[in-house]
Amino acid sequence: MDRNDWNERYRTAELVWTAEANRFLVAEVSGLPPGRVLDVAAGEGRNAVWLAEQGWAATAVDYSDVAMAKARELAALRGVAIETAVGDATEPLPGGSTFDLVVVAYLQLAEPQRSAALRNAAAAVAPGGTLLVISHDESNLEHGYGGPQDPSVLTGPETVAAALTGFEIVKAERVERPVDTADGPRTAIDHVVKARRPA
Predict the structure, then answer these.
(1) How far is CA 108 from CA 90, 100, 151, 185, in A?
(2) DSSP labels for 14-42?
(3) Secondary structure of the chain: what % helix, strand, coil (to 5)?
(4) What is the pLDDT of residues 47-101, one digit of tens each?
(5) Are 160 and 191 in contact (CB under 8 A)?
(6) What is the largest distance, in Å, between two alpha-carbon atoms of the chain?
(7) Parallel, antiparallel, or unpaired: how do β-strands 168-181 and 184-196 relate?
(8) What is the pLDDT of residues 4-19, one digit of tens each?
(9) Domains (ranges, CATH) in the chain?
């Protein structure tokens, strides 16, 4: 999907995604001292807004200017301030290597865009900072529910971790996420990769 497609998708729904922060983000970030955070491909800003509520100085960046407008609205509704920027994750990200935490949640790209986005996210992490990548897992296609049905945009935690040269891998694992459907509860398979840049 190009920028116009995403803008149209965000324009035609109150919220494409939920307003609640991702459960894995909440679990992995809870032990970190608040600092500067960059939310890459932030969509409507649910994670950036939650992080701001926890005391983080949050910057959200997304391909869609409509999504960034909705992120600012969500932040205002919740009584917090976030910075927003319209940008492509496959190009250098705003702010340089100054972020204590960089989050990339459900940015599902095929190669070579996937590797470019991961390189740029890693480059934004300050010394001593953390990179958190949350994605639909490649195993979800056969064994889980929902998510992208194009195998070219799916990968596994091992592949993500192997690409993070110069980082200490804190966690790289598949995780299950319950999904409520009209046919009853189902299970989606995601993966979480948490890595730390040495100080």
Answers:
(1) 12, 23, 10, 24
(2) S-SS-SSPPHHHHHHHTTSPP-EEEEET-
(3) 30, 30, 35
(4) 999 999 999 999 999 999 999 999 999 999 999 999 999 999 999 999 999 999 9
(5) yes
(6) 48
(7) antiparallel
(8) 555 555 556 565 456 6
(9) 3-187 (3.40.50.150)
186 HSE (CA, 13 A, CB side): 13
130 touches 196 (CB < 8 A): yes
Which ranges constitute the DSSP H helices of 55-171?
65-78, 113-123, 140-143, 157-163
**Residue 88 corresponds to which tokens in the numbers above?**
């492509």
What pLDDT digit, counting tens, does each position of 118-169 carry?
999 999 999 999 999 999 999 999 999 999 999 999 999 999 999 999 999 9
Local confidence band at 37 (pLDDT 50, 70, 90 cut-offs): very high
Report yes or no: 179 and 196 within 8 Å, Cβ to Cβ: no
Cα(80)–Cα(78) distance, integer angstroms: 6
Task: Give the C-alpha separation, 94 to 17, whole Å.
Answer: 24
Question: What is the radius of gyration, based on Cα positions, of the chain?
Answer: 16
Which two three-digit tokens encode residue 182? 């009209």
CB 74 within 8 A of CB 44: yes
CA separation for the pair 23, 28 (Å, rounded): 9
